[in-house]
Amino acid sequence: MKHKSWPKSTGARTVEGKARSKMNALKISPELHTLIKEMNHLMKQQKEIFNTISKSAYVCAKG
Question: What is the Cα–Cα distance from 56 to 48, expressed in whole angstroms?
């Protein structure tokens, strides 16, 4: 290959362009990607709630 254009590439510069380029490597639909991110967020919240309840139960049991 004689001409390599990518060494001069600067990549996406705008927020919209960065979001679009981020999705280029995505192997699932954008909707599923959004659902997975939301599920991970909810699981993190659930873990925090569980830890809070566990600490409270330990303090109550300890007396």
Answer: 12
